[in-house]
UniProtKB/TrEMBL annotation:
One Pfam family matching this protein: Glyoxalase_6
Domain annotation Glyoxalase-like: ranges: 7-112
PANTHER family named among the record's database cross-references: CONSERVED PROTEIN (PTHR35908:SF1), HYPOTHETICAL FUSION PROTEIN (PTHR35908)
Residues spanning the signal sequence: none
Organism per entry: Arthrobacter burdickii
Domain of life: Bacteria
CDD domains recorded: VOC
Protein name: VOC family protein
């Protein structure tokens, strides 16, 4: 059996606006746009993508799924995301080697700190 991860679907009040924000944040390209969905990918032929679909009900609780990113320079990446319109959020994580941010619609994501070397290396 073959199984390929194609996309992650994200509910959004404004799918096009949120999708364009994520495309700018990730440096991805728009691969599909309609009234019912907005898709971005790393490149037109590369998976997985993110698909934004319209919902009318507001988000009221912490996301059950979120994206984690591990950049070369976490501090610079946090600054860049904040400059794009993300905001820092506290979800009760306390002091951690990562920063929790939220996109313009409040969806949480994390900028992780440097990866620790494996034990014994």
């Amino acid at each position: 059996m073959s199984l390929e991860w194609e996309q992650l679907v994200i509910d959004a009040a404004q799918p096009g606006e949120l999708g364009r924000w994520w495309a700018a944040a990730l440096g991805w390209v728009v691969t599909f746009e309609s009234d019912d969905e907005f898709e971005i990918r790393p490149s037109p032929d590369r998976l997985p993508g993110l698909v934004f679909v319209p919902v009318s009900d507001p988000r009221t609780v912490k996301n059950r799924l979120h994206l984690d990113f591990r950049p070369d320079n976490p501090a610079l990446e946090v600054e860049r995301m904040l400059a794009l319109g993300a905001r820092a959020v506290d979800i009760g994580q306390g002091p951690q080697p990562w920063t929790v941010l939220a996109d313009p619609e409040g969806n949480e994501f994390c900028i992780l700190g440097p990866r620790e070397a494996p034990a014994g290396s």
